[in-house]
Amino acid sequence: MGKHDSDEGLGFFLGGAEAIKEIALWLVNNLKILLIVALIPAIGFGAYYLTKHFANNKKPETTPTYAVAGNITSNDKEEKEYIGGYEVLGRIKVPSVGVDVKVLNPVLDGEDYTDDSLQYGAILYYGEGLNELGNTVILGHNSSDSFFGLKELEIDDSITVIDQKGNSKVYTIIEVSDCEPDDFSKFLPMEKNSREITLITCESEGTQRLVVKAIAK
């Protein structure tokens, strides 16, 4: 019998199917190899990114220690002390009569708090400051932790004044007297260009003031 057109088409189809079958068979036989070849780049990229990740996040075996600065006071600035919120300017000491009291600055933000600050110590009431030239007036309550012992002082007794910088000066008492509460004459220095200290406290239930004036020699 002669060939029919449909036979040629069938042969082409069968030939193509045979080729596909061979390709499929080859793929099955070589699937493992193909998978390995395909995985090599993926494994390489994965290893690279994992290595980079662990390198960036790796913690040291021991935690490093760093030196931490403590409270540092500058050489050109003295460390200040405060009591009750008031700056301590220095100290008045008269061991012979049991007086040892700190002197405070009663001014806060430009406001004078004399009455409140007197609860915490003696206060700078007038003058340039402790151990400065001129007359420095210090007020204190007539209490055991302040100026109670002043009434026992006499002329030529000594008063030690320690300023904010720690400098100490000894003053010799030249006057012990009483005055009215509104008598401000005691604020004036007794000698020109002198370094004086005037301590004032209450007595006679507040109707009079006890004044002790001393001068540095």
Order of helices and strands: HHEEEEEHEEEEEE
What fraction of residues sit in β-strands? 25-35%
Give the class from helix and strand content and strand pairing.
alpha+beta
Helix content: 25-40%
Count of discrete alpha- or pi-helical segments spanning 4 or more residues: 3
- Main sheet: strands, sense, barrel: 8 strands, mixed, barrel
Low-confidence stretches: 1-14, 53-77
Report Rg.
48 Å
Mean pLDDT: 77
Descriptive notes:
With 217 residues, the protein is α+β, with helices and mostly antiparallel strands. The protein folds into 2 domains: 5-57; 82-216, Sortase, Chain: A. It is built from 3 helices and 11 strands, in the order H-H-E-E-E-E-E-H-E-E-E-E-E-E. The chain has helices spanning 5-29, 31-57, 114-117; strands at residues 82-83, 86-94, 99-104, 107-108, 111-112, 122-126, 134-139, 158-163, 168-179, 195-203, 208-216. The strands form 2 sheets. An 8-stranded mixed barrel has the order 2-3-6-7-10-11-9-8. Strands 4-5 form a two-stranded antiparallel sheet. A hairpin with a 4-residue loop joins strand 8 (158-163) and strand 9 (168-179). It is rod-shaped.
Secondary structure: elements and pairs:
Layout: H1 5-29, H2 31-57, E1 82-83, E2 86-94, E3 99-104, E4 107-108, E5 111-112, H3 114-117, E6 122-126, E7 134-139, E8 158-163, E9 168-179, E10 195-203, E11 208-216
Parallel strand pairs: 3-6, 7-10
Antiparallel strand pairs: 1-2, 2-3, 2-8, 4-5, 6-7, 8-9, 9-11, 10-11
